[in-house]
Amino acid sequence: MNDIEFIVKTIIEKPSMIITNEMSLPAIKKSSAQGCVQPHLLDYEKTCAGFSWDKILHELDGLPGGLGLNIAHEAVDRHANGSRRYQPALRWLGEDGTLLDLNFADLQGQTNRFANVIAALGVHKGDRVFTLTGKIPELYLAAIGAWKQVAVFCPLFSAFGPEPIYQRLCQGDAKVLVTTVRLYWQKIADLRERLPQLTHVLLTDAKKDLSDRLRSLPLCMAHASDKFVIPPTDPEDMAILHFTSGTAGMPKGAVHVHNAVLTHYMTGKVVLDFHPEDVFWCTADPGWVTGISYGIIAPLVHGVTNIVAAADFDAQGWYRILEKEKVTIWYTAPTAIRRMMRLGIEPRKQYDLRHLRAIHSVGEPLSPAAVLWGQQALGLPIHDNWWQTETGGIMIANFPAVDIRPGSMGLALPGVDAAIVRRVAPKSIKVIREPGIQGELALRPGWPSMFRGYLHDDRRYKNCFRGGWYLTGDMARRDTDGYFWFVGRADDVIKTSGQLVGPFEVESALMEHPAVAEVGVIGKPHPMIGELVKAFVSLKPESVPSDKLRLELIGFARKKLGPAIAPKEITFQENLPKNKAGKIMRRLLKARELGMAEGDTSTLENNSETTSV
Ligand code: AMP
Questions:
Q1: Whole-number pLDDT of residue 28
Q2: Does the bond joining 445 to the residue before it have cis omega, within 30 degrees of 0?
Q3: CA–CA distance from 80 to each of 11, 37, 136, 323 (Å)?
Q4: Which of 410, 341, 415, 406 is nearest to 377 (CA)?
Q5: Is pLDDT at 246 greater than 90 in this prediction?
Q6: Closest Cα to atom 7 of ligand 1
Q7: Which of 482, 494, 351, 563 is nearest to 44 (CA)?
Q8: Residue with the nearest Cα to atom 20 of ligand 1?
Q9: What distance in Å separates the CA atoms of residue 575 and residue 578, rounded to the nearest whole number?
Q10: Which atom from ligand 1 is nearest to the alpha carbon of 472?
């Protein structure tokens, strides 16, 4: 048995075993043919050398009459007006087995209607249209319809509780919100008075209007015309607002522009390797950036069929979708892959997965074991790639025809200059050219989907750049052949089940409980969900730690924040470690929790013993 066979056997027999990225495994050799399809990118070096974003622009259409560049035109109208008019564009699989097929002509008509609806409500260029829904067809119509009216689309994760929703609607100056009756009464109704700028709520499941401002979307759509002409759109017009979490302060609204479609198109071509007959399934929730860039834009721009499955994760259910829909390209995430690995079945014996041509993963580190499990269990290695909300699209990837190094995020996208750097006081950086040295992953600004700012927060935006580089906040290494290897976050941001959680947001919510004096929140490594949100709470003198209070605090946080963000573990601790400025040192909380070296403690306020309960 060789090394790889041994590892695969071990992970199948002992799926809980973690194999770290540090394990050095042989590269997986890729050939230039993927079944009977020849990948678009065959020679990585040659493609990089001859690459220019201008050439990519010429592969897109542009608005008729040279009136600019609009995502909705590239994704829908140019296909609907051309030879792909009756090709399936979106196949929606409802939770109860309902199926909805929209071809490009249908999608054009429906999104035209939505654009007319919001135009009639007074939505103009730059106004924000939010959604708070599960994966329902109306979300997709709202996104594309908003881009047609050159409004800004902003999706909210439907599992958020009222507090994160309020923060984002308020910070994002929401003018229109598309949601469902249930979510409205559960999460929004009580916030309405605090959101005066929110002029209309469109309810996808209301048969009639509930008031002037609480309208039935189906009724509005039925009365709207299915003809719409996209107004002139500057490629730099704002198109998408994605909220992401930072280490301090409330979430930041990353601004993206229509020009981002160049990156979506380009990565759809050379990373996901779309071909006209492909059936693509991106499992990401549209509340997050992957669910928009790759759950909507990239596949539609390429005119391929995009599967949207509304149901939550269920391993057997997912295999059934891959089989039944004859998915050819599958884009998913490590949390889901780990859960599928744990199921311990041999999927190829139970399901016909022969249509599958490539599997891609993003959002968290993908262990070498997972890459190899893909090869063993699904017949294909899993291609890891890296990017983040701020980059708007894939920046580092294991390309279809390039050898995979299991555990590595891959090589930089052609047209993207990535480097490992070290911050040097006061405001500069040093590029680390030697391979194998750990530092911060940085990108040279200039790719089309780079965020153009954090809404209303120029200072935070400017702080992301130093010495002509964008600093990603991720620590990584680059090997001699240019492959990047993820090391960890440079800050305290938590990645749980693929979602970024800002510790400050969780701490602020817990601080509102009358028993709580101070809180520090960390991410604790977890074999299944990556990191688990853990809070250390110091109580006010009159409160006594107990299991009952712990459960009460968890419930309190879940109600405010929603289950995706709320802490899953709470430890009561009398004195939280603070620096001399009084700031809670999350780094120390984490080191102590994990039994790791505490590092430099010279700024610690007092080193007295702490009591944990
Ligand atoms: P988000 O902005 O929510 O998409 O999260 C972006 C962050 O997820 C990155 O900065 C990384 O910390 C993490 N991430 C994304 N892709 C990968 C990957 N392939 N390997 C390791 N971490 C990743």
A1: 86
A2: no
A3: 47, 25, 22, 28
A4: 341
A5: no
A6: 388
A7: 482
A8: 365
A9: 9
A10: 10
